[in-house]
Amino acid sequence: MATNGVHPLEALMRERIVVLDGAMGTMIQRYKLSEADYRGERFVHWKGKDLKGSLELLNITQPEVIEEIHQNYLQAGADIIETNTFSGTTIGLNDFLFQGEPRHGRKDQEFFRSVIDDAGLRALVHEINFEAARIARNTADRVSNETGRQRFVGGAMGPLPVAGSISPDVNDPAFRAVSFDQLRQTYFDQAKALLEGGVDFLIVETIFDTLNGKAAVFAVTDAMAETGRSVPLMISGTVIDKSGRNLSGQTVEAFLISIAHARPLILGLNCSLGPDEMESFIEELSRIAPFYVGAYPNAGLPDPLSSTGFPETPESFAPKVAAWAANGWLNLVGGCCGTTPDHIRAIVNAVRDVSPRVAPVIPSRGEAATPPRKAFGARAGFQSRGKEY
Question: Regarding predicted confidence, which is higher, 369 or 23?
């Protein structure tokens, strides 16, 4: 593919709608792995907490499982697979892999300082993310060679179990469990390892607290400088309910304005809601965002009686997100919680002949960012400039 100096992923999004993979956790659950499986040979003598449920640890202990899941999504037609690193940070994995306990009865900044400074944990987190990137990279490259169609690896940087702008204690609203610098450090360690492992771009996703997202963006910038690798950035927020706000209270437009300085290649929404509940927010984002737009909702709202824990089947899910594409709202589409390779295969078939959203002009580096304007419509006729990465 001739890219004329732009990143191959952007070049592809100019041609057609790009398809992201589906849920990792949903697929891992199907393997019904035991505590022994999670430990593997590496952690057979582990004396700490139980490791069952630490999905990211499987990059080390059961890499063939993760590779098989990636393979299934690629065979379903996904253009992009995400690394199995959604919670792959020192803070994100502390409940499984950190031996210390908070001294003051609750996890506070002193506790999380000990977490992010723990040399053993930081080394393990680096290994987890590096191996996750390597597994995904090798799988994507193999399928690319077999099919003659380039596949991409997105380095997944998910949310944390703590928020920078919200107190976890309703009786102490001024309390903050973590500082901004601690958030930045935990994300930096992850981003650096993902870049070293060979991802094509980074995905800061499921942002429920915008301050956490800002820390991740800061960390990504530092990690790119440290590694000497400059790759595109995708940012995806999450709206927690029909009010259209994230957990820190921002609307979709406010969230966009807060992170626009990062000039992501793709801005989107994922998780939390199903396609029915997310539709109006994707429409709004497409109307105002001066970036390529992506969406990967859950397979509906949680339903414990469904086989995946979510009610939307491939047959019901795909037409709903395909309608967003037909409306000219999307450049990228995929699935989040509860989606499977069958969901992704149905999406691929549903959007195959649909034209992508026409993206507005994206400022080149060094230029002032263009603020969101109502004139930025899905069919406003603006074209994205090429960016060097």
Answer: 23
With 0-12 / 13-18 / 19 or more C-beta atoms within 10 angstroms meaning exposed / middle / buried, residue 109 is: middle
Please give the pLDDT value at position 5. Answer: 81
Our measurement of the distance from residue 368's CA atom to the centroid of its chain's CA atoms, rounded to an integer in Å, reads 27
**Token pair 């927010």 in the structure block, residue:** 281
Predicted confidence (pLDDT) at residue 376 exceeds the cutoff of 80: no
What the block records as the tokens of 82 is 């995400």
Q: Can you list the positions of beta strands (E) in the chain?
A: 18-19, 80-82, 152-157, 201-207, 233-237, 266-270, 292-296, 332-333
Virtual torsion, Cα 306, 235, 129, 124, nearest 10 deg:
-100
Please state, rounded to an integer, the average pLDDT across all residues of the chain. Answer: 92
Q: Which residues pair with 294 in a beta bridge?
A: 268, 332
Which residue type, as a one-letter code, is found at position 162? V
Residue entry with tokens 């509906």: 300
Residue 145 buriedness (CB in 10 A; 0-12 / 13-18 / 19+) = exposed
**CB proximity list for 73: less than 8 A, separation 6 or greater:** 21, 22, 81, 341, 344
358 within 8 A of 15, measured Cβ to Cβ: no
Mean pLDDT of 194-199: 98
**CA angle at 82 for the pair 307 and 275, rounded to the nearest 5°:** 50
Task: Note the residue count of the chain.
Answer: 389
Q: Give the number of other Cβ atoms within 10 Å of residue 366's Cβ.
A: 5
Alpha-carbon distance 204 to 157, whole Å? 5
Residue 336 near residue 21, CB atoms below 8 Å = no
3-state secondary structure 309-359: CCCCCHHHHHHHHHHHHHCCCCCEECCCCCCCHHHHHHHHHHHCCCCCCCC
Token pair of 71 as six digits: 């393979």
**pLDDT digit string, tens, across residues 123-180:** 999 999 999 999 999 999 999 999 999 999 999 999 999 999 999 999 999 999 999 9
